[in-house]
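Is this the right way to post structure tokens for a design question? Let me know if I should format differently. Anyway, here goes:
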């Protein structure tokens, strides 16, 4: 299965069952991030790799349940980042990239990989506060989509 970016979605669907986080989840038992759609933070980018901090992205009732379980305030979305492990993921030279420019709203705007990260981004990317969806296929990131967070 190939995981492709759908830029019309503000965030990918839940691939698991009701109550799971969006995307492919947020628990990986390996040192290599497998094929899938992963939410987390782009900590660094350079030399053809992205350093990725995997996290969980919940919305709706799942966000309320996860936030309550963690003793946090309930909002429309909730990010759980309890695993300190960082993944170094090769980035395909043909990777598709979208950033949030906030000029036209929180929808992602396409940008060439060679131009990312950009100072025009709403988020400070890469860094501790650079939320992204990472699309991994064949051992490499084929898509990077910045996630707007209010």
């Amino acid at each position: 299965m190939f995981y492709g970016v759908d830029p019309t979605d503000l965030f990918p669907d839940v691939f698991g069952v009701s109550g799971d986080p969006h995307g492919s989840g947020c628990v990986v038992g390996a040192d290599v991030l497998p094929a899938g759609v992963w939410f987390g933070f782009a900590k660094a980018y350079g030399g053809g790799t992205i350093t990725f901090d995997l996290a969980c992205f919940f919305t709706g009732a799942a966000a309320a349940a996860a936030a309550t379980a963690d003793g946090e305030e309930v909002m429309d979305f909730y990010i759980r980042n309890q695993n300190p492990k960082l993944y170094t993921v090769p980035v395909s030279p043909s990777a598709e990239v979208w950033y949030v420019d906030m000029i036209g709203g929180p929808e992602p705007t396409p940008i060439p990989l060679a131009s990312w990260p950009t100072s025009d981004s709403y988020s400070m990317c890469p860094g501790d506060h650079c939320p992204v969806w990472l699309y991994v296929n064949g051992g490499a990131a084929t898509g990077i989509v910045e996630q707007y967070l209010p």
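Format looks fine. Someone answered above. Worth noting: Strands lie at 36-46, 49-54, 56-59, 77-80, 86-100, 108-111, 131-137, 140-146. Residues 36-54+87-146 form one domain.
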